[in-house]
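cron nightly-structures :: item 1 of 1
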Amino acid sequence: MDGATRIWLDDPNPIFRMGLAASLRDPRFVVVGESTGFVPTPTLENVDVLVFDLGDERSLGWTMPRRQRRSTRLVGLVPGGDIETAERSQCTVLVRSELTPEGFRDCLASVAGASAPIGSAGRPGSAGDSPVGSVRA
C-alpha cells in the first residue's frame, strides 16, 4: 500500500459509507479511517483526501481553518439537486445520486494527483476561477 492515496470517509449513513469504502478496494487507495459527524476526528496529517457530507455545515470540512487542511484535499458529497450547497462550497463536489464506484475512484485519483488542494494558490480554482466543480460520476 506504499504510495496509495490515504482516504478518510465521513458520512452519516453507515451503509452508504460502507459502499464508498468497498468501491475503494483498489491498490491506488487505502481507507485510513471512517467517521460519522467527524467522530472520531481524523488526523489530517495522515489523510490525503477527506470525503465528507457537504450538507452538514457544522462538519469539520466547513469549520477547519484553511491552514489546518492545506495538504488535505476535500471532496464534498451533496444530494442531487442541492445546487445552493455546491455553489458555495470550496471543494470538489460529487452528487450522491449520480455517483458510481468507477466515477468515485476516478475523481479521487484526479483530486489526489493535484499538486495542491483546489482553491489554494497556484491551482485552478484559486482567485478568479470557480473552486466548485460538480463531477458527474
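cron nightly-structures :: done
Residues 101-112 form the longest helix (12 residues).
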